[in-house]
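Hey L., structure's done. Input below.
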Amino acid sequence: MPITELALLRISAGLSYTDPCLLANLATARAAMEKFTSFPFYLYQCIEDPALIYLIGSWSSLAQHMESWIPSSENQALLQLMKDQVEVEWMFHVALDPTTLPINAPLLAIARHFVARDNKIKFEEVFDGVKHYLELCAGSQELVKGGWKIEKDDQRVREEEWVLFSGWESVEKHMDFAETEDFKEYVRIIDWMEGSEIRYATRMTLV
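Output:
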């Protein structure tokens, strides 16, 4: 099974996210990765901060990305091309089949759940028992997909990370979930978490 790459890029200060050169170079980078992997790649703009761009892609393995692509001449040329336009804030991989992601939804919610390693199994049990509430609100189980972060974080040595992608019509539609009785059941997952982060993003149209 292929794995999912999730990366967060920040547009350089003073550069607009509508800059034609930036969009053209992002399209070039996307095309190069798609050619290398034979998988599709997607770019999403963060609603809360338009200077942030999420890269979501697919790799056949961690080794293909880190050992074959990263040191390749193609990638090094792209890094040089875009060095004054974007910087990578972070990047990691998720044990999740990227073909299942709700990439056609109007809005993508990207939620990072930080779970103490000792609570990983219990978190999974509770999440599996309540995820249908979120799926029901989203409209389909196909719109809610998650997986564990593969890499271990040096800054969070005692934690695991569950990354959840969910597709929505709007931010308001997702927020409505918090007003339901079902939400009171769903938030039982909080008892097994150390913290969380959620952001919303829309798919970018490149030249």
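The chain has two domains: 3-99, 101-198. The mean pLDDT is 96.

-- N.
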